[in-house]
Each structure stands twice: as C-alpha cells, then as structure tokens.
Write a structure and sequence with these properties.
With about 450 residues, the protein is of the alpha/beta class. The protein has one domain. The strands form 3 sheets. Strands 4-12-5-11-10-3-9-6 form an 8-stranded mixed β-sheet, sandwiched between helices. It has a two-stranded antiparallel sheet with strand order 1-2. A two-stranded antiparallel sheet has the order 7-8. The longest helix is centred in the middle third of the chain and has 32 residues. The two termini are about 40 Å apart.
C-alpha cells in the first residue's frame, strides 16, 4: 500500500474521491502533524427573542407590533463589563452537554447605514462589518468578508479555500442576494452558497460520472476494504463509523429527494420546498460541512440557516401545524412570542447537534474536532421586531486549539464593535490582524 496521510484520498474506479479522517495506523506510515485549526459560522436570520436568550432579560418588555425600520431599542438590563457565570437560559438549554466548550459573548454592536434595508444589511454585512458609508461603490457597507480573508491565509493546502452552505431551499427569488448570503468575495461579488445537499455532496465527493449519482462508498469500497485490513482495531472502528456517517448522508439525501418528488406530484398552496422538514435539511447540510472540516477538504466554512425577510414559509419539524414565515412572526412578537421562542430553541438544537458532533470526532493528538475549531453562532439583529443592531446574540463553540476561553459568559464594554470579535478570531487563526472594518481593538479578555 502506498503511503497515506490524514489528507489522503481513496479513489474508486468511477473517479470518486473520499477524504479520510485521521487514523493512528496511518500516522505510523506518515507521522501526523498537529491538528489544523478551523473556522466556521452558523448564521441565524431575524434575531432572537431576547427574554429567552439573554441572561437577565427574562422580565424584559416584549416589543409591540411591527417597528419597521425605526430600530427602537427595548428595555435591556445593564450587565457589568466582564465575566459572568455562564447561565443556560431557555433558548440555550440544548447546549447543556457541551457547556464547558462554549462561550456566550454579549454586548457586541454593529452600526446601521441609513438608506438601505435593515434585513439585507444585517445578513450581507455580518462578516464584513464595514463602517457606514466607508464603501463608496455600494449602497451597502459591504466589503470582503472575514471567512474569505481567513481562507486566503489558511486555505492554500486544502482543496476548497472556503465552503459556503445555505439552507434556503426556495427558488422563488423573493428577495435579492443581499438577503440570502453572508459570504462575499468583495463589494458586489457574492460567494454563492450551495443550498442543494446533493450538489454539495457532489462538490465534496464528486465523480467524473456525476450524472449517474452512483453511491460514493460503493465506488471506493474495494479500496476501503484493502485499507481497512491494514488498520488496528481502534482505527477499524473509527473507519467504519466514518463510512457509516457518509452512508447516512447519502441516505438522507435520497430520502429528501424522494420526499420532494412526491410533493411535486401533489397540488400545494405553497412551493414544494415549503413542506420539506427543516431540521433534517439543516442537519444534513451541517453534516456535510462537518465532513468537509473533518477530512481537510476545507478549513473555513459558513452555514446560513435561512434567509432574511423571506415571505415564503418553511415547515419546522413538529413545531407548527402548517408552514410558517419567520419574518412575519417576528413583526408580531407580542402575539407570537411563544412561537418565536420555540423557533429559536429549534435553531439552537440544530447548532447544538453540530457542536456535539464535532466534539465526538477525535483528532491526531486526542483532542476533538471541536477543540480545534472556532464555531460561531450569530445573527445580525439583536431583536427581530425592533431591528436593533446592538447587543447581538453571539455564541462561540470550541477554542481554536486553545486560543480562546470556553465555558464563560463575557459582557463587552458598551459600544464594542462586532468587528473586535472578528479580529480576535482572525488572530487565533494565525492572521497578523490589528484592525478590521470598524474595529476598535481585539477582545483580549476572551483570549487564552
């Protein structure tokens, strides 16, 4: 058998490529280096219900009605700057099994540029955080996003410098690209996300005979069996688990395709995609992202859970009797606050699922994929009804190989720019950053 390393690939007769996880037996052939650091983002649209997300706000006033673009602030109890006990509020409870590996960062702000839509700006500018009116060629304060900049620095040795995942299965183009993309090569140049699980699967594990949609593990099975006989017992178990996870992804893709096919045959008041189960869809795209990070196909990825201000509804698994529109609910918060809280909890469950999955994947030095990743949950709005851009909901899972503190709640000084967090994360990924967008400095307090 020819020498293999963690970045090696199994290649089948059909031209299939399948990245390998780290295996101890292969390290004896080619010694493994320290695990690579990864950077990933989980973007949730339209903010959160503050009283259930933020510690100390359980008694805060629920905003009334549609606030339009007025961005009125709601009552927010003042926290002292610094560290606080990490309280798992109702929305954060799905994270209880990984509490010691997450951090809650509160008090981060962005500045809104007047004259452009609130929702489009909060999504498209989330990872660029350019200062208002600093980009003369655009109506949006939109510049090259952090994921692309980090990808430039760390992506040279990976097949994909960055990967962009999206969970908007609709094709009705209700809004412009600014409402539905968080990754940008530069002003006016979107890094388009892939929203179809099969298309992403084929991009990651593609074949030269892609039109046949042959099973990737069938294509490489003979090579896999040959390799598996050379592995120790523990690696055989890990190898089997890895192949099973790829099999599961394939089966889920087939299941959703069959479901979509049946729905296409049935007259429905909404587009077919409105009836696809959101949880399965988001987790499937997340599984693909984790597989890409695990096998070294990329070190930088973004996952946008849903679009901003989109009036075509989605089916949220078992939460509601019929498809619902997140944006509509957010503008009727007093009437639908409990529905919105359930929706926030649902999104947190999907994030927690991926965090736990990352934490179950063992790397070369005995650490986990999560330990070597900075995986950020966030939204461009602090509240979906008032459209406020301050005190954004931000969670960080993983420490980026010990670069960031975990198991803490840190409240930033008043008017701290979100870009300060982006500088801190870029530095943790090895970039020589001292300034980014509208930053005023790094968040030294959360660095280890």
């Amino acid at each position: 058998m020819s020498p293999l390393s963690r970045r090696s690939f199994l290649r089948g007769a059909g031209g299939a490529l399948l990245g390998l996880p780290w295996l101890e037996s292969l390290a004896k052939i080619a010694p493994a280096s320290a695990p690579a650091q990864r950077l990933a983002y989980f973007y949730v649209p339209i903010g959160v219900v503050r009283r259930s997300f933020f510690p100390g706000e359980a008694e805060a006033t629920v905003p009334e009605g549609n606030q339009g673009n007025k961005m009125k602030s709601i009552f927010i109890p003042k926290l002292q700057t610094g560290f606080h006990p990490l309280e798992l509020t109702p929305t954060l409870k799905p994270l209880h099994r990984v509490k010691d590996k997450i951090s809650l960062i509160t008090g981060l702000d962005r500045e809104f540029q007047n004259g452009t839509d609130v929702h489009a700006q909060c999504a498209s500018c989330f990872l660029s955080s350019a200062a208002p009116f600093s980009i003369e060629s655009s109506a949006w304060p939109l510049d090259r996003t952090l994921d692309q900049i980090v990808g430039d620095h760390v992506g040279g040795a990976t097949p994909f410098r960055t990967l962009e995942f999206g969970c908007n299965s609709h094709r009705d183009n209700k809004e412009s690209i600014y409402f539905d993309n968080i990754s940008w090569y530069g002003t006016g140049h979107v890094a388009p996300s892939i929203r179809d699980p099969r298309k992403m699967y084929n991009r990651l594990f593609g074949t030269r005979e892609i039109q046949n949609f042959r099973n990737i593990t069938d294509l490489v099975l003979e090579d896999a069996r040959t390799l598996n006989r050379s592995l120790g017992y523990n690696d055989q178990q890990k190898f089997t688990e890895y192949f099973d996870s790829i099999r599961t992804i394939e089966e889920q893709i087939d299941k959703l395709d069959r479901m979509k096919g049946e729905l296409d045959k049935t007259p429905m008041p909404e587009p077919t995609a409105a009836y696809l189960p959101r949880g399965e869809y988001i987790r499937l795209m997340g599984d693909l992202m984790v597989a890409a990070l695990q096998t070294g196909l990329t070190r930088v990825a973004t996952l946008m859970v849903g679009p901003e201000r989109w009036d075509t509804p989605f089916t949220y698994d078992s939460l509601f009797d019929n498809p619902v529109t997140h944006h509509y609910l957010s503008h009727n918060q007093t009437k639908h606050v409990e529905d919105l809280e359930r929706l926030d909890y649902f999104h947190m469950e999907q994030y927690a699922y991926l965090v736990e999955k990352m934490d179950s994947i063992i790397e070369a030095d005995g650490s986990t994929l999560l330990d070597n990743t900075i995986f950020t949950y966030g939204s461009g709005l602090g509240d979906g009804s008032t459209h406020q851009y301050h005190d954004l909901p931000i969670i960080i899972a993983g420490s980026g190989r010990g670069q960031l503190k975990t198991g803490v709640h840190y409240h930033c000084p008043e008017a701290t720019p979100l870009a300060n967090l982006w500088i801190t994360q870029a530095q943790a990924m090895g970039l020589p950053f001292n300034r980014f967008a509208d930053s005023s400095g790094k968040l030294a307090a959360i660095q280890s």
